[in-house]
Amino acid sequence: MNSATLTEPIHELTPADLRRLQTEAARAARLDPFFRDTLRSGGQGPELALIPAGRFLMGSSRDTVRFGELERCEAVISRPYAIGRYTVTAEEFALYTRAAGLVWPDHLIRSEGRQPVINISSLDAQGYLDWLSDETGQRYRLPDEREWEYAARAGSPTDYCFGDRLGCGEANTASLMGARRSGWRGWLPFCVPLHRVCEVGTYPANVWGLYEVHGNVWELTADAWQGPLDPENSAAGDPGRWIVTKGGSWFEGVRDARFAARRPRMVDEIDTNLGLRVLREL
């Protein structure tokens, strides 16, 4: 099976088929399925996963669509690309801030090490992406909503990577979730939320090797918000100042961590539950 001749939606493929597509696309691009670009100033950029081209169903089914969400539709990814296996970490973003001479405001909470970088706006994110592009000689940018959901789903037609339910061993959200365990332990009553961001790579990856596509931090996309705004947000100025974020976070429940879930955030908004995942064009 070859991504260039793929005619059926990727939801109809097995995990083995999906990984084979990823490997074939990587081979065609003369890259490994997982790789990093070298920085001109030394060190390496974020770890990337190669995503093959294909067709998929994005959005919510008609009976599950929530306010502001897109109804289920077929979307096409015509070219492969690479995307971060993790959201950008504090230590990765610090390479940029040191190089650019940026000083972190004292009043803002900062994450550390391999925690996702937080309290950055989409404008800050663009500065990082421009720097990363210059350092590697490759074009880095934010994924659009379609690219984000395609890579996050990795062939899954369900609400989450792991089915239509999410256990606390599978994502960092604010819900009291059942704990999936084997044997006589079965489903214990619930797991208590962390109520904080966790290090990337803490929870299981999807079929294409992406971590924390559910929960932890909302992820910026390149798309302007085109859906409705609730009354509270509508009062906050020009609708063109809003962008789409995906994935949910540690602060919201499991329903906001569904693939189809989306939330508007202002272009200059910062928050302790807002981060980014990079896309690298091939």
How would you describe this structure in keywords?
5 helices, alpha+beta, 282 residues, 5-stranded antiparallel sheet, paralog of FGE (formylglycine-generating enzyme), 4-stranded mixed sheet
Can you put this structure into words, describing what you see?
The chain is an alpha+beta fold and 282 residues long. The protein has a single domain (3-281), classed as paralog of FGE (formylglycine-generating enzyme), CATH 3.90.1580.10. Helices cover 19% and strands 19% of the residues. The chain has helices spanning 15-28, 90-100, 122-136, 145-153, 231-234; strands spanning 34-35, 48-51, 54-58, 73-77, 81-84, 140-141, 177-180, 187-191, 218-224, 242-246, 262-266, 274-275, 279-281. The strands form four sheets. Strands 1-2-5-13-6 form a five-stranded antiparallel β-sheet. A four-stranded mixed β-sheet has the order 11-10-9-12. Strands 3-4 form a two-stranded antiparallel sheet. It starts with 14 loop residues before the first helix and ends with a strand. The relative contact order is 0.18.
Write the layout of secondary structure elements.
Layout: H1 15-28, E1 34-35, E2 48-51, E3 54-58, E4 73-77, E5 81-84, H2 90-100, H3 122-136, E6 140-141, H4 145-153, E7 177-180, E8 187-191, E9 218-224, H5 231-234, E10 242-246, E11 262-266, E12 274-275, E13 279-281
Parallel strand pairs: 9-12
Antiparallel strand pairs: 1-2, 2-5, 3-4, 5-13, 6-13, 7-8, 9-10, 10-11
